[in-house]
């Protein structure tokens, strides 16, 4: 069994309620921080832990916190990003539903560290039943003296509020989230200024993912240095992976970042292998926006080394032969799945979720969807594949926020690694309506699947 | 006495300029002027918060600053990125920038109707200029274009949403210049549109300025619609003593003969108005006698308006006599009555239809 | 018009934000209003919300049209929002949508004649591990099969009577 830090007590019945959580050592980290540590000491522990943002970008959390501006007399805010919307990702939902106090405790320690007296949890609107769970947990924490004025006699005050979104993927982008929290359209802001200087209500603000903030609790419990001993290299600690697609055991798993991708997919402790005795064709290991990899490149890097479930190993080879750990939305495709159709659903998703503010994303995402739809429906031309490549290239890096990149990457990677499947769709339009391209050579030993130069 | 502000040195396409801290790359480039100024479709220096959306002004920062010389990883919107001391920027000298800009132009034109022949903005349209200077000759888009119905925003302003490029300038104008904003951007993504939601009339006394800030023909002046082509009109500077204390009363009249076809604010060479004007000046003062005319207005944009401009044109001297050593050129005589060049006995006015060489060989 | 109780709820929501930032309450109050006034937001409802929060009506329209959870047209009593994005597609969401279409004799985006059901195909709802799935009101219905869909429809019909 892999070591657990977040889910170590998840199996305990009723752990979602305050009494059970507290009886099992809950709020111990908060107590330690408030009673025996200064905010700077907590920050030091977080820095030492090597914790990286769990929302997708993987930015070092300690560093992000140290950027927050501290002008005299201006309030600071902590905003918890619970707008989990990246297709394939559903880990934060699990955490909030089943161990809400872990998040509340994390928010308390983080707010204390940042000197924020108000904290908002911005949760996606579709998770309509979770605010009730969180609000109940907040009320219980408050009743027991963990929120409100002068918490545990430390002189520190904190209020936590839950804010529901209303259906917009883009609000997972931190500045769009802030706009939405201010009661506006979720249009991302143009950076700089960054939220650490000018965020919510123009005040210094830190926006962190649910998992990131919850992880602060075990870090304080065992200490930053001890935490850093978990995992591999710069991928310290554990990571929640939400596994889905054609596997035997979809669900949320906490992994220590030292296991291989192969172990994660095939061991009974995690995904339990490919469903229905099928073979693995491809995988998107970090949420829909990260590059898709064919089976052979997924299990081994281009250098022939086993690929590990770490930030570095998954990114090994750059976009040519690698991908990203992203948000940990692990989507597995079996041999019966069509890459073109899968890519089309993601293109449709990003088209649907584009805020429409900047032109490359507003116009380009819809264009890609339409071209892909043609190819999928047997109306594609060979030149469409190059056209798609060119459209994604002109979106990537040229937009206000990363949604443009998120829309471009899946299309680019699908063409990069599965170009012959696209070509087959174009050349055999009628056959492609009846059957799928199948596994083809995508699981063959590596030398065959050298990256196509497109 | 305040200390003298230290200026930042910034190099754009190899040309160095010194600007005050806080200046954007775009404005630094405008201080240099000429070809190296990035095009801007959404940025408007008089509107707070504008810019960053259209992505036409993307540039490459090849050196961040003297202190931190690392280049910026992505192209940046020059209208919203401030300069640092020692920054080096590539605009037209960067193939990457030109390629990206070409892409942006294609995106902007993807759903644009290209109805320039019937569009009032033609001849002073920034998207026309942009397409001409930075775009490709054809689109690769093979799908149905997005269309919207035309909407009247009151009896003076027409909204032609199909042409809109969502620069948000009119929204900022309504907020910051007109006050009492009644329209905004509704819908999301590709379906985003400028609208009042309820087809309301816009009613602020300064709302007409949305027409001037619109870079395309999405918002046009209904009192001028289809009356004339801008390049057939003569723009003149004029002013009047406007009662509205917020209105500068300084305008451009677009005239033909003595007739005033339309009134606009005065725009600089980047197409930005110098001072906003009120709707009374814009819509209700359509006679030359309402105005004190100062003289011809130079339109500095590279449009056809400037192509046949009369400013600076010298009246031709009657030089022919000099050139011909005093000989009177016969060509200038009434060619329809007598042709001495050909056969004096042939009366051209008697020939039916166009004259032919055969007519002179009879 | 909100009841006394709901008005208190609005006040409570506004109190979460600093003075003068009551616009932050817009999305929560719109949720409240949509739940209260027939499952959709009419112009009157939005104007009412604007007056409650002392903001301009256009600011409400801008927001209401941006977020996909706000209905600007009346919808059926039960809205089936079936996810169709990648992970759900891999597990057969297309078949579920087809099954519901046939069963209720409506297309995607349509409402049954009795006004009971509306079918929507939506994008990722964050339940990829429990696919195929749909949102029904406040809750998720996961691991859908035709039999499960039948049971859900029956349950909705029973509740309607």
UniProtKB/TrEMBL annotation, chain A:
Q: Which PANTHER family match?
A: NADH DEHYDROGENASE [UBIQUINONE] FLAVOPROTEIN 1, MITOCHONDRIAL, NADH-UBIQUINONE OXIDOREDUCTASE FLAVOPROTEIN 1 NDUFV1
Q: Which UniProt keywords apply?
A: 4Fe-4S, Flavoprotein, FMN, Iron, Iron-sulfur, Metal-binding, NAD, Oxidoreductase, Quinone, Translocase
A GO MF annotation of the entry reads:
FMN binding
Record-stated family: Belongs to the complex I 51 kDa subunit family.
Q: Cite a single Pfam family from the UniProt record.
A: Complex1_51K
Keyword NAD attributed: yes
Which species expresses this protein natively? Answer: Chitinophaga silvisoli
Under catalytic activity, the entry for this protein gives:
a quinone + NADH + 5 H(+)(in) = a quinol + NAD(+) + 4 H(+)(out)
- Mind giving the lineage of the organism this protein is from? Bacteria, Pseudomonadati, Bacteroidota, Chitinophagia, Chitinophagales
Q: Biological process (GO) annotations?
A: cellular respiration
**In UniProt terms, what function does this protein have?**
NDH-1 shuttles electrons from NADH, via FMN and iron-sulfur (Fe-S) centers, to quinones in the respiratory chain.
Give the matching PROSITE patterns: COMPLEX1_51K_1, COMPLEX1_51K_2
UniProt EC number: 7.1.1.-
Catalytic class of the enzyme: translocase
Residues in domain NADH-ubiquinone oxidoreductase 51kDa subunit iron-sulphur binding? 340-385
Name this protein carries in UniProt: NADH-quinone oxidoreductase subunit F
CC cofactor: FMN; [4Fe-4S] cluster
UniProtKB/TrEMBL annotation, chain B:
Entry's Gene Ontology cellular component terms:
membrane
Respond yes or no to whether keyword Iron is given for this record: yes
Q: Could you tell me which residue ranges the 4Fe-4S His(Cys)3-ligated-type domain spans?
A: 96-135
The entry assigns this protein to a family as follows: Belongs to the complex I 75 kDa subunit family.
Look up the record and name the cofactor or cofactors this protein needs. Answer: [2Fe-2S] cluster; [4Fe-4S] cluster
Question: What is this protein's record name?
Answer: Fe-S-binding domain-containing protein
Principal cellular location given in the protein's record:
membrane
**Which keywords does this chain's UniProt record carry?**
2Fe-2S, 4Fe-4S, Iron, Iron-sulfur, Membrane, Metal-binding, NAD, Translocase
* GO MF annotation list: 2 iron, 2 sulfur cluster binding; 4 iron, 4 sulfur cluster binding; metal ion binding; oxidoreductase activity
Q: State the organism of origin.
A: Chitinophaga silvisoli
The 2Fe-2S ferredoxin-type domain sits at 8-95
Q: Which compartments is it annotated to reside in?
A: Membrane
Automatic annotation (TrEMBL), chain C:
The organism named in the record is Chitinophaga silvisoli
Which prosthetic group or cofactor does it need?
[2Fe-2S] cluster
**Gene Ontology biological process terms in this record:** inorganic cation transmembrane transport
The UniProt note on the cofactor reads as follows: Binds 1 [2Fe-2S] cluster.
Indicate yes or no for the key word Protein biosynthesis.
no
Q: Which GO terms describe its cellular component?
A: catalytic complex; membrane protein complex; organelle envelope; organelle membrane
Q: Which UniProt keywords apply?
A: 2Fe-2S, Iron, Iron-sulfur, Metal-binding, NAD, Oxidoreductase, Translocase
Pfam families xref list: 2Fe-2S_thioredx
Show the InterPro entries listed in the entry: NuoE-like (IPR002023), NuoE_dom (IPR042128), NuoE_N (IPR041921), Thioredoxin-like_sf (IPR036249)
**Top-level taxon in the UniProt lineage:** Bacteria
Molecular function in Gene Ontology: 2 iron, 2 sulfur cluster binding; active transmembrane transporter activity; inorganic cation transmembrane transporter activity; metal ion binding; monoatomic cation transmembrane transporter activity; NADH dehydrogenase activity
Q: What is its EC number?
A: 1.6.5.11
Name it.
NADH-quinone oxidoreductase subunit NuoE
Q: Which PROSITE patterns match?
A: COMPLEX1_24K
- Family of this protein: Belongs to the complex I 24 kDa subunit family.
Annotated positions binding [2Fe-2S] cluster: 83, 88, 124, 128
């Amino acid at each position: 069994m892999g070591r657990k830090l977040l889910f170590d007590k998840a199996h305990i019945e009723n752990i979602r309620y305050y009494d059970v959580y507290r009886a099992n050592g809950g709020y111990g980290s908060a107590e330690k921080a408030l009673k025996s540590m200064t905010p700077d000491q907590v920050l030091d522990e977080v820095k030492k832990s090597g914790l990286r943002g769990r929302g997708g970008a993987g930015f070092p959390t300690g560093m992000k916190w140290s950027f927050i501006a501290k002008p005299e007399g201006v309030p600071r805010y902590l905003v918890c990003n619970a707008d989990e919307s990246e297709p394939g990702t559903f880990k934060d939902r699990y955490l909030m539903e089943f161990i809400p106090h872990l998040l509340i405790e994390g928010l308390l320690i983080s707010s204390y560290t940042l000197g924020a007296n108000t904290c908002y949890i911005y949760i996606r609107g579709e998770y309509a039943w979770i605010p009730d769970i969180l609000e109940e947990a907040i009320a219980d924490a408050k009743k027991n003296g963990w929120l409100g004025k002068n918490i545990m006699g430390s002189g520190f005050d904190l209020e936590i509020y839950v804010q529901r979104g209303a259906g917009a993927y883009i609000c997972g982008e931190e500045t769009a989230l802030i706009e939405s929290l201010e009661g506006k359209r979720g249009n991302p802001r143009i950076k700089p200024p960054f939220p650490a200087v000018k965020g919510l209500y123009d005040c210094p603000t830190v926006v962190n993912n649910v998992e990131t903030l919850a992880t602060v609790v075990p870090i304080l419990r065992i200490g930053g240095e001890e935490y850093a001993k978990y995992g591999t290299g710069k991928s310290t600690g554990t990571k929640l992976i939400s596994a889905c697609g054609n596997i035997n055991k979809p669900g949320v798993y906490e992994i220590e970042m030292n296991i291989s991708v192969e172990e994660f997919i095939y061991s009974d402790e995690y995904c339990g292998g490919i469903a229905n005795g099928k073979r693995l064709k491809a995988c998107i290991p970090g949420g829909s926006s990260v590059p898709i990899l064919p089976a052979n490149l997924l299990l081994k890097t281009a250098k022939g080394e086993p690929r590990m479930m770490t930030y570095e190993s998954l990114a090994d080879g750059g976009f040519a032969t690698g991908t990203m750990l992203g948000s940990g939305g692990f989507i597995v495709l079996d041999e019966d799945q069509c890459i073109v159709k899968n890519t089309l659903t993601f293109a449709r998703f990003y088209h649907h979720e584009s805020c429409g503010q900047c032109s490359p994303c507003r116009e380009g995402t819809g264009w890609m969807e339409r071209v892909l739809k043609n190819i999928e429906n047997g109306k594609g031309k060979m030149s469409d594949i190059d056209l798609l490549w060119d459209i994604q290239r002109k979106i990537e890096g040229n937009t206000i926020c990363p949604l443009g990149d998120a829309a471009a990457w899946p299309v680019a990677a699908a063409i990069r690694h599965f170009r012959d499947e696209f070509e087959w769709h174009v050349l055999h339009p009628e056959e492609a309506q009846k059957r799928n391209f199948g596994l083809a050579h995508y699981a063959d030993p590596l030398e065959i699947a050298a990256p196509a130069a497109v | 006495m305040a200390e003298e502000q230290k200026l930042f040195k910034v190099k754009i396409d190899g040309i160095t300029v010194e600007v005050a801290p806080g200046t954007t790359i775009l404005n630094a480039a405008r201080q240099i002027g000429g070809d190296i100024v990035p095009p801007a479709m959404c940025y408007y220096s008089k509107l707070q918060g504008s810019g960053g959306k259209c992505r036409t002004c993307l540039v490459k920062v090849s050196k961040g600053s003297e202190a931190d010389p690392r280049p910026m990883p992505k192209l940046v919107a020059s209208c919203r990125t401030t300069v640092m001391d020692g920054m080096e920027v590539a605009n037209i000298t960067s193939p990457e920038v030109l390629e990206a800009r070409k892409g942006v132009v294609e995106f902007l034109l993807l759903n644009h109707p290209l109805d320039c022949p019937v569009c009032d903005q033609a001849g002073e349209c920034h998207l026309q200029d942009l397409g001409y200077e930075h775009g490709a000759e054809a689109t690769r888009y093979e799908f149905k274009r997005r269309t919207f119905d035309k909407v009247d925003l009151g009896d003076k302003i027409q909204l032609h949403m199909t042409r809109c490029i969502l620069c948000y300038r009119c929204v900022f104008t309504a907020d910051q210049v007109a006050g009492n904003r009644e329209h905004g951007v509704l819908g999301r993504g590709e379906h985003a549109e400028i609208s009042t939601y309820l087809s309301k009339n816009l009613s602020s006394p300064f709302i007409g300025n949305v027409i001037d800030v619109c870079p395309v023909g999405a918002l046009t002046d209904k009192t001028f619609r289809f009356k004339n082509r801008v390049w057939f009109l003569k723009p003149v500077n004029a002013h009047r003593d406007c009662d509205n204390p917020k209105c500068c009363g300084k305008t451009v009249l677009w005239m033909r003969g003595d007739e005033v076809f339309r009134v606009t604010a005065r725009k600089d060479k980047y197409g930005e108005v110098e001072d906003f004007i009120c709707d009374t000046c814009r819509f209700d003062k359509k006679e030359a006698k309402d105005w004190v005319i100062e003289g011809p207005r130079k339109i500095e944009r590279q449009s056809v308006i400037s192509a046949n401009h009369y400013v600076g044109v010298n009246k031709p001297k009657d030089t022919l006599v000099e050139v011909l050593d005093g000989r009177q050129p016969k060509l200038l005589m009434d060619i329809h009555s007598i042709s001495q060049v050909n056969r004096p006995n042939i009366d051209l006015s008697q020939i039916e239809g166009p004259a032919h060489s055969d007519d002179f060989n009879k | 018009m909100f009841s006394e109780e709901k008005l208190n709820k609005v006040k409570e929501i506004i109190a979460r934000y600093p003075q003068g930032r009551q616009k932050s309450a817009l999305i929560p109050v719109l949720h409240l209003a949509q739940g209260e006034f027939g499952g959709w937001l009419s112009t009157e409802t939005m104007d009412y919300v604007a007056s409650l929060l002392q903001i301009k009506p256009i600011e409400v329209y801008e927001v209401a049209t941006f977020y996909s959870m706000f209905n600007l047209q009346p919808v059926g009593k039960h809205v089936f929002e079936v996810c169709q994005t990648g992970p759900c597609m891999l597990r057969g969401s297309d078949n579920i949508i087809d099954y519901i279409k046939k069963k209720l004799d409506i297309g995607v985006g349509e409402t049954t004649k009795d006004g009971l059901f509306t079918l929507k195909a939506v994008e990722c709802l964050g339940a990829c591990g429990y696919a195929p799935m749909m949102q029904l009101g406040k809750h998720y219905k996961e691991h859908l099969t035709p039999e499960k869909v039948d049971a859900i429809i029956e349950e909705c019909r029973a509740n309607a009577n």
